[in-house]
Write a structure and sequence with these properties.
Bound molecules: flavin-adenine dinucleotide, iron/sulfur cluster
Order of helices and strands: HEEHEHHEEHHEHEHEEEEEHEHHH
Organism: Bacteroides muris (ex Afrizal et al. 2022)
Shape: globular
Largest sheet: 8 strands, mixed
Strand order of the largest sheet: 5-4-6-7-11-12-3-13
InterPro entries: 4Fe4S_Fe-S-bd, FrhB_FdhB_C, Polyferredoxin-like_ET
Protein name: 4Fe-4S ferredoxin-type domain-containing protein
Helix content: 25-40%
Pfam families: FrhB_FdhB_C
Distance between the termini: 68 Å
Length: 381
């Protein structure tokens, strides 16, 4: 039976819990809200399926995926639609066509309480909830069995998520149900803590004395490269903050397993991979801050999806799209352990002030940086 005595060995995909027909495994949150399997030894019969299904290791299965993907860059032509996608809108273009052809799509969306979970869309309207990046690990509990039910009924399913989630789902499903399954994985920097996200929102709502009615992790009104999050409150006020506020980019609150991620390469598990196409030449017309998607076609099924969507995409080389998350895992901050200990004993506000950008230390650094930049400009004149 599966035993996680080292957090670096589990990405929280839920495949082990989903495959256990004896209901012996529960996915339980740790102090940061990340889910880990816990086995009830009284219910376990020792069949070993949970160990076999786990794909979080170097030799993960790739089925019939190409050795090397074909790369494209793409942007939705409609400006309003483009604003509603984090990159160039590749996910929406493919998923919308998939639904129009009678399929259903799974992806990460907010709940009413701003938690991030995987949800199903079967219309253009419900698909909109799956759009845009949510920088929190999405809770997959119950999703794999729901996908299995859909496939059993003969429904075509497009599942989207991080590469480790896609690898877990494919391994969980029996081969006989793979024909109608299509997968999109996203290029992934690593997933931040769901519990810190929840604490951060509670802090903001208390501060503004109003409920949040809209949240966005990277608001495109500040450009594609911009790192500004936005919150709309019930009282009509809107607030913009630096995206690193809840400690994501600093690497403090990332899941441990992301720092040893096996999927940060071109050996993709999805049929299609989507990400940001950061490798745009400076003089390109795409360098206008509106966003550009990178698309990797990884299998015959991926090619089929791409052709069905009739995307006007430009072929590029793999060299053109290389980025750190296709070369090596992100690193956890060296003070990660201290951060977690402080969070467990002293709470969100304490760590947000000490390690994040809510306190005076961050404000001082910010002011000093701004002054240094100003001085440099004056000297250069
Ligand atoms: C945590 C995270 C880190 C990322 N890091 C990088 C990176 O380092 N480099 C890079 O090139 N791209 C990264 N991306 C992907 C990128 O930001 C875009 O999501 C992607 O290019 C798709 O954009 P789009 O315009 O095609 O569609 P969008 O509509 O913006 O994409 C939505 C898609 O993202 C999925 N998604 C959103 N949030 C989550 C989540 N929490 N968990 C699982 N799936 C999610 C949805 O299911 C859907 O498939 C990251 C995304 C996330 C969520
Ligand atoms: S990576 Fe997935 S299958 Fe493996 S132990 Fe963690 S939750 Fe279970
Ligand atoms: S060994 Fe079998 S019964 Fe025991 S937890 Fe794993 S899947 Fe369940
Ligand atoms: S970095 Fe790797 S392990 Fe972490 S969520 Fe992304 S794909 Fe999964």
């Amino acid at each position: 039976m599966i035993l996680i005595d080292n957090k670096y060995n589990c990405c929280g995909c839920t495949a082990c819990a989903s495959i256990c027909s004896h209901m012996a495994i529960k996915m339980n949150p740790d102090s940061l809200g990340f889910l880990y399997p816990q086995v009830n030894s009284e219910l376990c019969v020792g069949c070993g399926l949970c160990d076999k299904v786990c794909q979080f290791y170097e030799g993960y299965k790739r089925y019939n995926n190409y050795e090397t993907p074909m790369a494209y860059q793409f942007r939705l032509s409609h400006d309003e639609q483009l604003k509603r996608s984090q990159s160039g809108g590749a996910f929406f273009a493919i998923a919308d066509k998939f639904i129009a052809n009678g399929g259903v799509v799974y992806g990460a969306a907010f709940t009413k309480n701003w938690r991030v979970t995987h949800q199903k869309a079967n219309s253009s309207h419900t698909l909109s909830a799956l759009r845009m990046s949510k920088y929190v690990q999405s809770d997959l509990r119950g999703s794999f069995t729901q996908v299995k039910e859909d496939l059993r009924k003969g429904t075509k399913v497009l599942f989207s998520g991080t590469a480790c989630q896609v690898a877990g789902l494919k391994s969980y499903l029996p081969n006989c149900l793979h024909d109608n399954l299509f997968c999109i994985d996203i290029i992934c920097h690593g997933v931040p803590s769901p519990q810190i996200w929840e604490d951060y929102l509670a802090y903001l709502q208390k501060l503004r004395n109003s409920k949040i009615v809209k949240a966005c992790f990277r608001d495109k009104r500040f450009g594609w490269h911009g790192a500004r999050e936005s919150f709309l409150f019930e009282n009509g006020k809107e607030e913009f903050r630096r995206t690193s506020n809840y400690l994501y980019f600093s690497g403090f609150s990332m899941r441990e397993s992301c720092s040893v991620c096996y999927y940060t390469n071109f050996k993709r598990v999805g049929d299609i991979t989507v990400g940001d196409q950061w490798g745009i030449p400076k003089d390109s017309t795409y360098e206008d801050g509106k966003g550009l998607s990178l698309i990797l076609i990884n299998s015959e099924k991926g090619k089929y999806l791409f052709e069905c969507a009739k995307l006007k995409a430009e072929s590029i080389t793999l060299q053109d799209c290389i980025q750190p998350q296709l070369e090596q895992p992100s690193t956890l901050h060296s003070a990660h352990l201290r951060f977690v200990r402080d969070y467990e004993t002293k709470g969100f506000l304490y760590v947000a002030k000490k390690y994040g950008n809510l306190g005076w230390r961050y404000k001082m650094v910010y002011v000093i940086r701004a002054l240094t930049d100003l001085l440099r400009k004056i000297v250069q004149r």
